[in-house]
Design a protein that fits this description.
about 525 residues, alpha/beta, Rossmann fold, 3 domains, 6-stranded mixed sheet, 15 helices, 19 strands, about 20% strand, globular
Length: about 525
């Protein structure tokens, strides 16, 4: 076991308006299972890159450990090769037999190493990279968002696997994963950094208790400052009135008043001294009050504008199926979405959740109902809206779509959609607002409520973190009045605090929703029904 010491760390990107870290100091052990928590854009991935020595910085990072980072960068050339051929390129000194041993713990066989990497599923790629990562000895591992885009089964396997490991920093916003895998937390608060023993729930309970204490202390100081200021104002008024009484007498007509003058002066001086003491107490109270709320999380209450649809059933599928060419995705689906329901589509990666969503969007833009058993060979644009997403990408499979059964979508149905893909976001928020007919001021207000810093408003969205890009799509969806909200993996990369905001929003406004999301805690709180695909 060794330690990683960070002292007076200061860092900002070239051309940036503000520091990511400023005079940061803390100490961690390389034997810990450390969860790294913080809001989007706070610098979690940046700190991992600083440990890897990718950027120059001020201050000191002292560590005798060797660092390795997940996910590995896989080139297009490597995607066309079998994993066994480039293991050494990913991790120098990597031994194949060790990787195979780790794969067995991840419920995979060595066979995946002998298939082209590009043909592996998201879950298989993640497991192969984790097996390579943990095949070394005495490395301190930096694991960045390992469960994004993974289905329930793969998440459970990764959770069980990491729970038996140690010596890593895990960046994740999945509360269930953090609770199962970590024994310490490293938290990027609003204006400080803290290290604490325990898992996510332990830290959150302590933080909630501390935040409540700080709010109570702040309120107590606020009231005391108000009381003292009233006392200071009264004392000042008495002193000024007393001082004025010394002026304007005739010493010939009122010779005795001269004796009173000295008494009044002494009394005034005493009152002024009392006022100064009160004002000093006010300054002390303000000093004690300062900093109490600097790390308190006060997430704003988000608002939604759901519209009420005139029919009970919004979407209905009867014996419905989808295939792409000779590859069948699913068939014989029986499904109804009723007004007020929040339905989660659930199943393994590749089972057809996103395909069903895209088919619903196509039905909606095509007028609500299209018969099944038809083939589309003329490309994505042959059916209005099919393959089109908020980010502007096209679904290349749409041109080879085959459907069976029937899928109906209510006429006049307004849908607000979040795609899982953010790669098409570009330009500034102002340009995005104009392209999508959004009220720019309201759009930016929602983003501020989601804790996007104002400095980000003038940047190109290609410079955003993945979590910040997701917030752009979420804010755009919230701003659009709709009968139905269809969200496809909306929480990938979204920080824990914003997830809780969104949970509260949905529970408060109760919109009709169709959701694909693998966050177990989110689904347990939000879902009124789960459809297994």
């Amino acid at each position: 076991m060794s330690q990683i010491s960070v002292s007076n760390l200061t860092f900002c990107y070239e051309g940036s308006f503000d520091n990511i870290f400023e005079n940061v100091s803390f100490l961690i052990d390389t034997d810990w299972k450390l969860g790294f928590i913080g809001r989007n854009g706070k610098g979690k991935t940046t700190f991992l890159n600083l440990l890897l020595g990718k950027y120059e910085y001020e201050g000191h990072i002292n560590a005798s450990a060797v660092f390795d980072y997940f996910p590995y960068r896989i080139t297009e050339e490597q995607k066309g090769r079998c994993g066994v051929e480039f293991l050494e390129q990913l991790k120098p000194g990597c031994e194949q037999w060790r990787v195979i041993c780790e794969l067995e713990k991840l419920h995979l066989t060595a066979e995946v190493l002998y298939r082209p990497f590009g043909t592996l599923s998201h879950g298989e790629r993640t497991k192969v990279m984790l097996a390579v990562l943990f095949s070394g000895e005495n490395d301190f591992l930096l694991i960045d968002e390992p469960t994004n885009h993974l289905d329930r089964e793969s998440r459970e396997i990764v959770k069980e696997y990491l729970g038996k490991k140690k010596g890593f920093i895990l960046v994740s916003h999945d509360r269930d994963l953090l609770d199962a895998c970590i024994d310490h937390v490293l938290v990027l608060n609003r204006s400080s950094i803290e290290v604490q023993q325990g898992n996510f729930s332990t830290w959150w309970e302590n933080k909630s208790r501390m935040d409540a204490f700080h709010r109570a202390e702040n309120e107590k100081h606020r009231k005391e400052i108000g009381r003292l200021r009233e006392a200071a104002d009264r004392t000042r008024e008495w002193a000024d009135k007393s001082e004025r009484s010394k002026i304007g007498f005739d010493p010939v007509k009122d010779p005795g008043h001269g004796l009173m003058r000295a008494y009044i002066g002494a009394k005034t001086k005493k009152m002024q001294s009392r006022r100064m003491q009160v004002e000093k107490r006010i300054a002390d109270e303000i000093g004690q009050k300062e900093g109490l709320l600097q790390d308190v999380e006060n997430p704003a209450d988000l608002k939604l504008m759901p519209m009420k649809y005139h029919k009970e059933v919004l979407i209905r599928a009867r014996d419905y199926g989808i295939a792409y060419g000779n590859s069948e995705v699913f068939r014989d689906l029986e499904f109804e979405l009723r007004r007020g329901e929040r339905v989660f589509l659930h199943g393994e990666n590749g089972c057809g959740k996103s395909s069903l969503i895209r088919a619903i969007l196509a039905r909606n833009e095509a007028g609500g109902f299209l018969p099944g058993s038809r083939r589309t060979d003329t490309g994505a644009d042959a059916r209005p809206g099919y393959g089109r997403t908020v980010s502007g990408k096209k679904d290349e499979k749409a041109g080879n779509l085959q459907e069976s059964g029937t899928l109906t979508c209510g006429s006049g149905l307004a849908i607000s959609y979040i795609d899982q893909d953010t790669s098409g976001l570009h330009g500034t928020l102002k340009e995005f607002s104009r392209e999508n007919n959004l009220d720019e001021s309201l759009f930016c207000a929602i983003l501020r409520q989601l804790d996007l810093e104002r400095v980000q408003f003038v940047k190109d969205m290609e410079e955003y973190s993945e979590g910040q890009k997701k917030k752009v799509l979420i804010a755009a969806s919230l701003l659009k009045p709709a009968h139905l909200y269809i969200w496809d993996e909306p929480l990938n990369y979204i920080d824990v605090f914003s997830r809780m905001q969104i949970e509260n929003l949905i529970l408060d406004f109760r919109p009709t929703m169709l959701i694909v999301e693998h966050d177990v805690r989110f689904r347990e709180k939000i879902a009124t029904r789960v459809v297994e695909m």
